[in-house]
Amino acid sequence: MPEKSYYLGVDIGTTSTKAVLFDRGGTVKGSETVFYPLHTPNQIVAEQDPEEIFRAVLNSVKEVIRKSGIPAHALKLVAFSAAMHSLMAVGKEGKLLTQSITWADTRSAKQAKKIKEEKDGHAVYLRTGTPIHAMSPLSKLVWLKEEEPAIFGQAEKFIGIKEFIFHKLFGEYVIDHSLASATGLFNLENVDWDEGALEVAGVEAGHLSRLVPTTYQMAGVKLEYAAFMGIREDVPFVVGASDGVLANLGVGAIEQGVIAVTIGTSGAIRTVSPKPKTDPKGRTFCYALTENHWVVGGPVNNGGIVLRWLRDEFASSEVETAKRLGIDSYDVLTQIASTVNAGSDGLLFHPFLTGERAPLWDANARGSFFGLSIHHQKQHMIRAVLEGIVFNLYTVLLAVEELAGEPLRIQASGGFARSDMWCQLMADVFDKPVTVPENFESSCLGAVVLGMYALGEIEDFSVVSDMIGETHTHHPDATASKTYRELVPIYIRLSRLLKEEYESIAEFQRKHME
C-alpha cells in the first residue's frame, strides 16, 4: 500500500495564524490556530508585532505536525496565504523600523485623499487595480514620507507580513504577484512595479521585494526553524497568494459567474476573470491569483470585527450564559437575533466602525443605528448589526454585478459560514441561494491546491471541486427577501447622504484624540 502524502496550508490572518494539514483528497488531518492582538490604541491606528506573528507561524506549524504524528518525509509542501495591505519599514540588516501597519490602519486617509485629488489617483487605480484608500500600502508610504520622514529616510525596504516571514525563514525578500497586486504599486498589464505609482510613493523598485509568481517555490528553510517546526529542511515552501484570492480557489469559485462571499474579521465579495478588469467608477479591486486567474471584487472592513465589538461591549450577560451552557458566545447572539423579524422592525445599522472600503472607499465613514425607537430592544440591535454587515456586502455585490454580470452561484466561506442563521440571512438579503462547502478552511485549502499545482501534482484547479466535500445550500425566504428589498434602498441612501457628516465627525474624533 503506497504511503500517504500530506500538504500543509498556512494562513497568516489579521487576528490569528492557522496551519491546516490536508491529505491528497482535501480531508483535514489536523489544524492549529494561534491568536495574537491587533493593537488599536485609538480609532485610526491598527498595528501588529511582526515577531509575534512569526512566532505564531512557527508554533502553529509545530503543533499541527506534532499532533498529527505524520512522518517527516510524508509532508510534501508548505503553502502560504496571507492578509493583504500590511506595510512595515525595514532598515539595515533587517532591523524593523515600524510595526506591521495593517489594512485597518487609517492614518493615511489624508494622503489617500490627496492622491485621488492631486496625483491622478483614478489613473493609478486603473493601472494597479487597488482602489486609492488608507488601506493601501501606496497611501501608507506617502503617509510615512510626510509624517515620519526620519523613518522613511532610514528604510532600505518596505515590506508586508508574508515577506517578513519568508525573509526570516530563508533570508530573502520576495513578494508574490497576488500580494503585490494589492499594494497599489503593481501594474496589472505589465506584471511589474508601476513607475507612476512608485513616483507617487517616493520609492524605487529597489526599495521593494523581488516579484515572483504565486507558484514560486523556496527550499532550504533555516535549520533552526525546520527543527523547531518538526519538518524537513528541504520541504518545498510555495510562496502562495493573498487570503482573498485563495479563498475563492478554496471554495471552488474559480469559474466565471461564481461569486465567493467571505466574512472573517473583515469581509469580501469576489469573482474570477481570465484577464485583469478594473471599474471605471473605482469601486472594486483586481488582484492576481495566476496569470490566467484574476480576482475582481470588493472588500469590507467591517465583518466579524463588528460582531466581536457587539459581544465584548454589550453582551456580557450573553457571554456568561454561553459559558454556563458550554456553547460559543456568537451562537448565543445569532440565536437571539433569530427571535426578531427580518428587518429588525425597521432598525438599520451601518457597520462602519473602522471606516469602510467597498463600496464607499471612505476611511471617515462611521457606524450608526438609524430608526431606533422606544419599542426596540437589545435583540433588535443584535439582529440589526448582523443585517447591516450583510446589507453592506450586498451593495458590493451590486457593483461586482455591473462588471461581471449576475452571479450563477454564490459560495460562502469564512467563520460566518458555520452559522446557519448568518447564511440564511445572506440568502434572504441577496435573494439568491447561498452554498456552503463542508470544508471551511478555504484559504488554507486554496494555498494547498495552488501548491500542488506549483509542484506539478495536479494539471489544473478542477480537482478542488472534489476536495471541498459535501455542500449545503440555503434558499431565500420570499417574505424576508421582500422586506429587505424595502430596507436596502434606505440603507444605501443614508450612507450617501452622510458623506459630509462622516468627514466632520471623523475630524472631530481625530482632533479630540490627540
Write out key terms for the chains shown:
514 residues, alpha+beta, 19 helices, 23 strands, 41% helix, kinase, Gluconate_kinase, FGGY_Carb_Kinase, transferase
Give structural notes:
With 514 residues, the chain is of the alpha+beta class. The protein is built from 19 helices and 23 strands. A seven-stranded mixed sheet has the order 17-18-16-15-21-22-23, sandwiched between helices. A six-stranded mixed sheet has the order 3-2-1-5-14-13, with helices on both faces. β15 (258-263) and β16 (267-273) form a beta hairpin. α12 (316-325) crosses α13 (329-337). The protein is globular and about 65 Å long.
Short overview:
The protein has 514 residues and is an alpha+beta fold. The chain contains 19 helices and 23 strands. Residues 260-455 form the Carbohydrate kinase FGGY C-terminal domain.
SSE blueprint:
Blueprint: E1 6-12, E2 16-23, E3 28-35, E4 47-48, H1 50-68, E5 75-82, E6 88-90, E7 100-101, H2 109-118, H3 121-128, H4 137-147, H5 149-154, E8 157-159, H6 161-170, E9 174-176, H7 177-180, E10 186-187, E11 192-193, H8 195-201, E12 210-212, E13 217-218, H9 223-229, E14 237-242, H10 243-250, E15 258-263, E16 267-273, E17 285-290, E18 293-300, H11 304-314, H12 316-325, H13 329-337, E19 348-350, E20 368-370, H14 378-404, E21 409-413, H15 420-430, E22 434-437, H16 442-454, H17 464-467, E23 471-474, H18 478-497, H19 499-513
